[in-house]
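Progress narrative, Year 2. Work on Response regulator from Ornithinibacillus caprae advanced from sequence curation to structure prediction during this period.
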Amino acid sequence: MFNIMLIEDDTTLFHEIKERLSQWSYTVHGVNDFDQVIQEFSSLKPDLVIIDIQLPKFDGFHWCRMIRSHSNVPIIFLSSRDHPTDMVMSMQLGADDFIQKPFHFDVLIAKIQAVLRRVYNYNTEQQMAFKTWCGATVDFLKNTVTNNNGDIELTKNEMYILKFLIERKNTIVSREELIKSLWEDERFVSDNTLTVNVNRLRKKLEELGLGNYIETKVGQGYMAKEEKTV
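Result:
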């Protein structure tokens, strides 16, 4: 059974979502004090966070940033705002998905199931814990990449993308193939979401001098290059 933290100040919507998710055997917890969101998060240790953007005191972006400074727990945004920058901002802050209000509950359930299946099944797969790529050590269990320039921590999405690409190194992977593999049901994913995640991954890799090893092939997809040895 998964514990979900729902950060939503609309009490009617909160109870409606809680009731519907309980039918799928999810346990939903709300927020008692919107000044103490991060403290309640730390106490609860949820498996998934669903968060609205417009909240009392501080907006959802603020709390997403705070949660990301403590944890890589999957995060899904809910918002009635329809500006594209809201979705881009949420992805840049490390969210796993974005749902615009009003939404159909079947879509919400599908997205929750996809994120939980991807994150937690991925962690329990039998796999090699480490891989060497371009002189760096990629730790699939800790979601870190390390080389002589330092180390970076990736989100679950970013590590999945990197793993998928380096397993097919020097081969172009189409955007459609990557979307289908990462989110499993591409009907609920925008093309822009993938772009944001790849750009965020590349920016982090730049800290290690590896940003250029993830190439964008215009009109085709992405490719992870392998450093040539002499």
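The chain has a mean pLDDT of 87. Residues 3-124 form a domain with the Rossmann fold fold (CATH 3.40.50.2300).
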